[in-house]
Amino acid sequence: MDDEKVKEDPIKLHKEGTTLCDVGKPEEAVDKFLRASELYEKVGNNFDASYTLFKAAECNYLIKEYSAAIEQFLKAADIAFEKGYDRFGVSALEYAVDCYKATGEKGKVAELEKKIKEVKEKLSTS
Questions:
Q1: Terminal alpha carbon distance of the chain
Q2: What is the pTM of this model?
């Protein structure tokens, strides 16, 4: 049904993703979270766009799809920082560090840890 595509509800997709993740089906939850993120972004709900992207990344981390998780955590962080959700952005970067550690990318770990430190210092002085 093409009508159904047009009427997709990001909140419904978000809830479905959460439910799937909660019942141990992170592989199935990823698509729900990614689609919800796209829809939230289209309507300018940047916090939920970032959050559902973060949730998709968490699911990918759980199923050891580290490269996808890294990409999603970094994009979630970018959206968060762009909109002033700095503490959330830092959380996304910290999870990305965990992914880089899992893949043995020490240079990327050091690079992100430096960025996290800089953001945290900025937050503590503001």
A1: 51
A2: 0.90
